[in-house]
Design goal:
By secondary structure, the protein is α/β, with parallel strands linked by helices. It folds into 2 domains: 283 residues, Class I glutamine amidotransferase (GATase) domain (Rossmann fold, 3-Layer(aba) Sandwich); 265 residues, Divalent-metal-dependent TIM barrel enzymes (TIM Barrel). It has 17 helices and 21 strands. The strands form 4 sheets. A 9-stranded mixed β-sheet has the order 2-1-3-4-13-12-11-8-9. α5 links the parallel β3 and β4. It starts with 22 loop residues before the first helix and ends in an 8-residue tail after the last helix. The N terminus is likely disordered.
């Protein structure tokens, strides 16, 4: 591997004393982060006049400037700090705290921020294991993370070649590596819009963009199964002919991504390779792109994150509808959870639901998938999901603990894995606590329905609706259509009763209604499957996941699942072309 970094003679004003380590100071002092007054004027002229999105609440962004053992990005770091600080002040989109202090990664300190911007950070900038764990759980629990250029080798020991110091961080940010052309600190490329209509690319108005910079190329764990690529090198319009065969800057797949977004757990992540030199923060187009990205990671600018490898016309239709199709792990409970992940990926789906009972994690982790697992075991689960390009937005918790401390452990477990919705059958007296924890941890609670023998106070939609009265919207229904159909409950009428209290769906179609009905491919049975989806669309309901729970032909279900997916794809392509739903 050949990486060449050159020393740069750059005009910068700041020594280490200029960097703020006290967030209170950052709020009180007006600091210019660049030496050259002309550069500050150029940044001011390039800044957008207003935010693209109106903040949903006051936002706080931590701009972390620590760069260990390499000072070549100092000018860019300072320009980035100046641009982001000014943007927050000018538009009110966020309040920025600029610091080099790793103590801000203490758990209570991180909680005050909505997102962290690792501003060209290189090396072991936060060396303490506990603080790294805090950053990990901040992201998986729903915080934002933003990085530029050198952040692709943050948390690596700075020597040559760099040595990995935190393997999971490469997965969080989406790639590792910093290969670039030797002697070409301003390599000219044409940037293509990989996803032309993506909200974060609107500033480019559908056109490619010429750029010169130190252009990084990446290696594993970069994969289009995990990230939504936004910008890439246009290999048809960029001259790569001078590269010798075997050059470390060449990729066999010709895939040179320059910017992407993704979810890691519930977290929103943005990375761009561009920011070696400060001129990126003097370019109006690039500043709008970066500042829209900041609003994305902060949680105010919605943007689809389905990984590029999964994008099809049907998947884009589902993004338009706000729907996500996945496999409920119970479908594959005769296999381990790791095998269920593999089967989900084989079906071309990027989502799976977890299951707390009846299924071991893997052959190497022969345990139930629940909050008793160690952090090391949870890491193995996250890495297995990553390797398949699969996320787990829902999780079925068979038992809700009776005391608050144990219940908190369940919610902490959920946030370590990025769970958005728990599916469970709680007792009525547990709902006050669950409502409070659901809002504290930003994890929904979907009330599941078995039959009257198992859940006598939950099995009818009217019962669930009554339990939700007076509670926050994080408490709602997780209907199992198989039970509805076997018990004579019309799914269409049930949607009209529950409406926006439907949080997630366990989907079935049965060969007949009544207690003897068994699963068949969607659209071939008596379940009014298409009408059910139409009714969801009419009410504007966007479940956490529409989960295929196929409870039949346990070892021969793959063809039926594929048929159900085809039906869903055809239905959503049709629904996405219809007028906006009315919300009665």
């Amino acid at each position: 591997m050949r990486h060449i970094f050159e020393s740069h003679v750059l005009a910068v004003v700041c020594a280490a004393a200029l960097f703020l380590t006290n967030p209170c100071q950052a709020e009180e002092k007006e600091v210019s982060w660049v030496q050259d007054p002309a550069q500050r004027v150029r940044i001011e002229k390039a800044l957008p006049g207003q935010a693209t999105a109106r903040p949903l609440k006051p936002r706080r962004l931590l701009i972390f400037n620590r760069n260990v053992e390499y000072d070549g990005h100092r000018a860019s770091i300072l320009a980035g700090s100046e641009a982001f600080k000014q943007f927050g002040q000018r538009t009110g989109a966020f309040e920025a705290t600029v610091s080099e202090d790793p103590a801000l990664f203490d758990r209570d300190s991180l909680r005050q921020f909505d997102a962290v911007f690792l501003n060209n950070s290189i090396g072991s900038c936060v060396p303490e294991p506990e603080r790294r764990k805090n950053l990990l759980e901040f992201v998986t629990g729903g915080g934002g993370l933003m990085g530029v250029h050198g952040t692709s080798i943050a948390f690596m020991k700075w020597q040559w070649p760099p040595v990995e110091d935190w393997t999971e961080f490469g997965h969080i940010i989406g790639a590792r590596g910093a290969n670039h052309r030797g002697g070409y600190l301003q390599e000219p490329v044409v940037m293509a819009l990989d996803d032309r209509d993506h909200p974060l690319l609107r500033v480019f108005e559908g056109k490619s963009y010429d750029w010169s910079d130190e252009i990084f190329r990446f290696h594993d764990p970069y994969s289009r199964k995990n990230v939504r690529v936004l910008l890439r090198i246009d290999v048809d319009r960029t001259d790569l002919s001078t590269y010798p065969p075997g050059d470390s800057c060449l990729r066999a797949d010709n895939d040179y991504a320059l910017a992407w977004i993704r979810n890691y757990g519930k977290g929103r992540v943005f990375y761009s390779a561009l920011a070696h030199s400060p001129h990126v923060f003097e370019d109006a187009t690039m500043l709008r792109f970066y500042l829209d990205a900041a609003q994305f990671v902060l949680g105010d600018l919605p943007a689809p994150t389905t990984p590029s490898a999964f994008l099809t016309p049907a998947m884009r239709a589902q993004e338009q509808l706000g729907w996500r199709l996945g496999i409920e792990a119970y479908t594959f409970h005769k296999f381990t959870f790791f095998e269920a992940i593999e089967k989900t990926a084989e079906l071309g789906l990027p989502f799976i639901g977890g299951l707390s009972f009846m299924q071991q994690v893997s052959k190497d982790i022969p345990k139930n998938f629940d909050q008793s697992l160690s952090d090391e075991e949870l890491l193995q689960i996250r890495m297995k999901l990553e390797s398949a390009g699969v996320r787990m937005p829902v999780y079925y918790a068979q038992t809700i603990p009776s005391d608050e401390a144990a219940c908190r452990r369940l919610f902490e477990f959920g946030n370590k894995l990025g769970v958005e919705t728990f599916i469970c059958e709680p007792k009525a007296e547990q709902l006050d606590l669950l409502d409070r924890l659901a809002n504290e941890y930003a994890i929904n609670v979907g009330i599941h329905n078995h039959g009257p023998d198992i859940s006598p106070h939950l099995w009818r939609p009217e019962m669930v609706q009554a339990l939700c009265e007076g509670r926050s919207k994080r408490i709602g229904a997780a209907p199992d259509l198989g039970y509805w159909l076997r018990l004579g409950i019309d799914p269409i009428e049930a949607v009209r009763i529950l409406k926006d209290r439907i949080i997630t769906v366990q989907m079935h179609d049965l060969h007949e209604r009544g207690p003897k009905g068994h699963d068949v491919p969607w659209g071939t049975g008596a379940g009014k499957t298409r009408e059910f989806f139409q009714e969801l669309h009419r009410h504007g309901i966007k479940p956490t996941m529409i989960g295929i729970e196929y409870s039949y032909d346990w070892f021969e279900s793959m063809p039926k699942l594929a048929q159900s997916i085809e039906f869903f794809n055809a239905t959503t392509l049709d629904l996405a072309t219809k007028p906006e739903s009315s919300h009665p």
